[in-house]
Design brief:
The chain is 24% helix and 19% strand. The protein is of the alpha+beta class.
């Protein structure tokens, strides 16, 4: 996800296979998969979506379009990217290796990186990782089992909440010998947790952190074992990651064809227009465009007109995508779902898409859009089997056609819909007093949209006008990046936009995003503060799924419930990446279905760079 969340197989039922990540072989497998066989055999040479002949060199300069944990795309004040404190720069994870590496062309499979093999116990609760003999940190020191043990224990105790929560069912990590690590799980973990441990937990040097505070906010460059190290930095403005030419893992199958740029530089901008102008001048070389208006009308500068800047097309990932405006359910005024539903009805998406978005978007309808996990139509027998036990706790809508956002008439102010919204507000106890709505206690219904980009002003203005027309005292407040992140972390907002692109197998993270236990966790992923026992029960069932078909049933059922609760009103999505580049790059012929990471998979084409004056 645009965040780095992950979550928590139970003992097998009689006659069924163990609920754990499946190794390709019974012992000493080169990889792990959630539900079945691995695509790549033990002797594979490289991932199909990478170019093993890609040249090394050049620079990739961009403003990060996604980030994880405590990272911030607008500023940074620490190089510690795995704790709660401070704002870290995106891509700091490039400095660290993990036990295994994920493949982006198959859902939820990982292959050996620091670990050359893994053996899984019959009950699925013990994983023994055999480390490669030549694994080392970037100062030349050996990477040993003790380093892995230190790293995993430290992250469980002191790591960012999205990390520590995801591995809470990891009960022990021990070094059997210098090259072997045994990880034991509680038996309550879902299938994905072992893959999370194997492929997302960075490995730190135990010796480096002796005498250092792991949780400290620090600008000291960290010691890692990954393909890059921290180079030039300008705090809050830019950071450069330098490729390590003799990176110990450069010839491993998971790395061949990757990490081609000598320098990856991330630039930071408080204002998107300033960022755009930097791209137009060639100070940035890659831009993923977030503004439909800019995409449609802004690329008329000299370099775009003469062809030095291109707009290649790349399909969106086949991963569930959640994007909407989330209500803060911790605030009493939003307690009644009819209030929330009414507010969402004020958005005329057809008008907005035509007049403001240049027809470039589709309306989001599901918490798991763009995937097979989105509910549609009436629930089937398999979904009903999950939902029926909770019928008396659920809105009737759950058992009908999946809840959809209302279709406005495209006029900009659909009077029929606004009348329906006003009725819902009255039913929820809000009565008109002058131009405002008040409740029985005389409190006015106010609503503030928290934003950090001027791009939202033109979108929200007509929505706010519609809300005011039905008595909702709506406004928007734009704050700087630091304030925005701080208020998000402390849940100091009425409503704010939130987007998460889930993993292809989203059994990890859904508990943090929707579960009651994380609703009041500072900086946690449950932005809405949802506390619902049915949601908790469905999320818990993720631990028991045995195959993808069963997961699809579970997620569609969860989607139906979430949509009926109106904890958001859905926003809009694009079916492709809107990418603009200075025409100096090459990329693999096939884009993987489950990932898009140009900074680690593309390369500089020196002939193209020279042709547009960007050589060197």
């Amino acid at each position: 996800m645009l965040t780095g969340a992950a979550a928590g197989a139970i003992a097998p039922m009689i006659g069924l296979p163990p609920f754990h990540a499946i190794a390709a072989e019974s012992t000493n497998s080169h990889g792990l998969s959630v539900f079945g066989d691995l695509k790549y055999p033990r002797d594979f040479k490289h991932f199909d979506y990478l170019n093993p002949a890609a040249p090394k060199g050049g620079s990739f300069v961009f403003a990060a379009p996604n980030w994880y944990y405590n990272q911030n795309a607008y500023t940074f004040n620490t190089l510690n990217g795995f704790t709660f404190r401070g704002d870290a720069p995106p891509r700091i994870e490039l400095c660290f290796d993990t036990l295994m590496a994920a493949a982006s062309d198959e859902p939820s499979s990982v292959y050996g990186l620091v670990a050359e093999s893994v053996a899984v116990s019959e009950d699925g609760n013990t994983y023994v990782f055999r480390l490669r003999d030549d694994a080392k940190f970037n100062d030349g020191s050996a990477l040993t089992a003790d380093d892995v043990v230190f790293s995993f224990q430290t992250l469980k105790e002191k790591g960012h909440p999205d990390i520590s929560q995801s591995i809470r069912d990891m009960v022990s990590v021990t070094a059997t010998n210098p090259r072997e690590v045994t990880v034991v799980f509680s038996g309550k973990q879902n299938r994905k947790v072992p893959l999370i441990v194997a492929s997302t937990l960075p490995i730190f040097s135990k010796a480096y952190y002796a005498g250092r505070d792991f949780e400290a906010s620090t600008m000291d460059p960290p010691l890692g074992s990954g393909p890059y190290r921290v180079g030039k930095i300008s705090p809050g403005r830019s950071i450069e990651y330098e490729r390590i030419a003799d990176y110990w893992g450069r010839d491993l199958p998971v790395a061949v064809g990757a990490y081609n740029f000598d320098r990856i530089r991330v630039e930071f901008y408080q204002d998107d227009e300033v960022q755009f102008q930097a791209f137009a001048k060639g100070e940035l070389l890659f831009r993923e465009e977030v503004s439909s208006k800019t995409w449609a009308t802004g690329y008329d500068f000299p370099a775009a007109r003469d062809g030095r800047v291109q707009k290649p097309s790349f399909a969106a990932e086949r991963r569930p995508d959640m994007y909407g405006w989330f209500f803060n359910l911790r605030r009493a005024k939003f307690a009644d779902p009819r209030t929330r539903q009414a507010i969402g009805m004020a958005l005329d998406f057809p008008w907005t898409n035509k007049n403001l978005f240049f027809g470039l978007y589709v309306r989001a309808t599901s918490f798991f859009a763009m995937s097979d996990f989105a509910a549609s139509g009436l629930p089937g027998p398999d979904e009903l089997a999950l939902l029926e036990p909770f019928r008396d706790q659920l809105p009737a809508e759950v058992f009908g056609t999946a809840v959809m956002p209302p279709e406005a008439d495209g006029s900009g102010r659909d009077r029929k819909l606004l009348r329906q919204a006003a009725t819902l507000l009255a039913d929820a106890g809000w009565q008109r007093k002058g131009n405002d709505l008040v409740n029985a206690s005389g409190e006015t219904l106010t609503l503030e949209f928290l934003i950090q980009s001027q791009a939202f002003e033109r979108v929200l203005s007509p929505l706010i006008a519609n809300l005011k027309a039905i008595g909702v005292n709506a406004s928007m407040r734009m704050v700087d990046a630091a304030q925005y992140q701080s208020r998000k972390n402390s849940f100091d907002f009425d409503i704010m936009a939130h987007r998460i692109m889930f993993d292809a197998t989203p059994i990890d993270g859904i508990e943090q995003i929707f579960g009651s236990a994380s609703a009041d966790l500072p900086s946690g992923s449950n932005l809405a503060g949802l506390k619902n026992p049915v949601v908790d029960a469905l999320v818990a069932k993720a631990a028991n799924v045995r195959d993808r078909a069963e997961l699809e049933t579970l997620m569609r059922s969860l989607d139906r419930v979430l949509r009926s609760l109106h904890i958001w009103f859905p926003a809009w999505l694009s079916t492709a990446h809107r990418v603009a580049i200075w025409d100096m790059f090459g990329w693999p012929a096939t884009k993987p279905d489950y990932g898009f990471s140009p900074e680690t998979t593309w390369w500089q084409d020196d002939a193209k760079a020279a042709a547009i004056g960007k050589a060197g």
